[in-house]
Specification:
- By secondary structure, the protein is mainly alpha-helical.
- It has helices spanning 6-20, 29-34, 38-51, 64-75.
Length: 80
């Protein structure tokens, strides 16, 4: 499990701007999130399961041990 630094996040946004010409419009994000349908979420999840490629990340102040335990539980979903 890795962590992102402020510099890494800044680098990502800089690359999006300088190489993709994309400026994130944060005020539009709530509407974009709300527009995602249940069917889109299910379809995306199915694609990850069938591709046998997954990752797990935690956000916030959760303990690393708790995140590792949850990752271990979720790992069972991807076993063939």
């Amino acid at each position: 499990m890795g962590a992102q630094t402020a510099g890494q996040i800044n680098g990502w946004y800089a690359n999006r701007y300088f190489f993709d010409g994309k400026v994130e419009e944060f005020e539009k994000q709530p509407a974009e999130i709300s527009a995602v349908t249940k069917e889109q979420i299910i379809d995306t999840a199915r694609q990850f399961f069938s591709a046998d490629c997954w990752t797990f990340g935690g956000y916030g102040n959760a303990e690393k041990a708790a995140m590792n335990q949850l990752a271990d539980q979720l790992r069972e979903l991807f076993k063939k």
